[in-house]
Amino acid sequence: MWRYPGDRSADYTDINHWVELAKLFERGKFDSMFIADLVGYFDVYGGNVDSALRTASQLPINDPTTLVSAMSVATENLGFGVTAGVFYEHPYTFARRMSSLDHLTNGRVGWNVVTGYLPSALRNMGQQDIPHDKRYDYADEYLEVLYKLWEGSWEDDAVVKDKANDVYADPTKVHEINHHGEYFDVPGIHLCEPSPQRTPVIFQAGTSPRGIKFAAENAEAIFVTGPTPELVAPQVKKVRDALEAAGRGRYDARIFMMLTAITANTKQEAWDKYHDYERYASTEGALTLYSGWIGTDLSKYDLDQPLDGIDSNAIQSTAANMQKVTGDDGRRWTVRDIAVRRAIGGNSPVVVGSGEQVADELQRIAELTDVDGFNLAYVTNPGTFEDIIDYVVPILQERGVYQTEYTPGTLRNKLFGKGDYLNPNHRGYRYKVSK
């Protein structure tokens, strides 16, 4: 949608664009700004990267962590969830990057843990494609190293700043982690003193059986997605059940459903806007993304046949959901339906209506699915967000279901109201240094 008049997506290389976007989100009292990321590129559709380049399908793309410091200076409360894959950077150096951001944002940073699904990323890192579930085994140890560094290396009072005796940090209170595992050997200490949250808020989006287990043990904010709320509801229940199975409370993680909202002053104006968007939406771009998401080249499919028999090594939940979805007539969606209907909204429900109608639907979906909130995708940037803030947020605030002021403190405290550090029943807490 970068071609749409007024869309600023192509300004992604301008830091002022990101700063203004962060200010907009804070004006709307959003909890956090979630920035997706890829190290690879979409080259499944047509067997090459040409379509991704032509349609700007998440390419080109910059490193999202470089944006956070500037945006945090321009805001006081907005959180920042940045995506980073476990296969593309050693945990020792990544631990320092996230601790640095946690310091510089005063504890407003979160990390969206991804195991990756694009073969192009691993190929360009000199690695082989890894079976889906095996990626999570690797991620388990990656998180173990990070927890040991963030939670177990420096004691809370290790930094004394004793000028009289020339002691900044007490060496007896800084400990080597001595990690020796299947994938990593990290014997030493963390490079950073304890940051406001120590461990950043952990975001995760795995909804395969193995992904849900990983999320239940590690995540504090979990993203779910699906083409309809009815398909999302059982996902949410599985996640809540898994949280309990992992020894946590059913609501110890916030669950956010991806959703696209198109709104205006009236229902007719909103639908006029939707149809205007359709003129610019790229069906080739949609098929390029879907091919990468499900690991199957949709250019080889008859446009009028449903998707069948896809055993994905990519995003398994997307592949499964798209083989189930049907239209209002009960007919299963074809490849053409995916291209046309999902060129706007991607793999999420699209809600169109006045501010009040969208607010009604958000509340209905929250009740139906038991999600805690929404991961709002955009059609145009920043237009979609401006419309939601102007037309929908005030109505939700009037109904008492949306915050009018931020909770003080770190991102973790804003989300849960229970302080800055990991919940004692979280997996990472067990690595906390004992005095």
Please, could you describe this protein's structure?
The protein has 435 residues and is of the alpha/beta class. The chain has 15 helices and twelve strands. Strand 8, helix 7 (209-218) and strand 9 (221-224) form a beta-alpha-beta unit. Helix 7 packs across helix 8 (229-245).
Quick structural summary:
It is an enzyme of class 1 (oxidoreductase). This protein is an alpha/beta fold and 435 residues long.
* Fraction in helix: 25-40%
Element string (H = helix, E = strand) = HEHHEHEHHEEEEEHEHEHHHHEHEHH
Structural category: alpha/beta
What form results from the Cα inertia axes? globular
Q: What percent of residues are in strands?
A: 5-15%
Q: Tell me how many strands there are.
A: 12
Low-confidence stretches: 312-317
Please state the average pLDDT score.
Answer: 92
Radius of gyration: 22 Å
Helix count, DSSP H or I runs of 4 or more residues: 15
Largest sheet: 8 strands, parallel
What is the terminal separation in angstroms? 55 Å
Throw out a few tags for this protein.
two-stranded antiparallel sheet; eight-stranded parallel sheet; 435 residues; alpha/beta; 39% helix
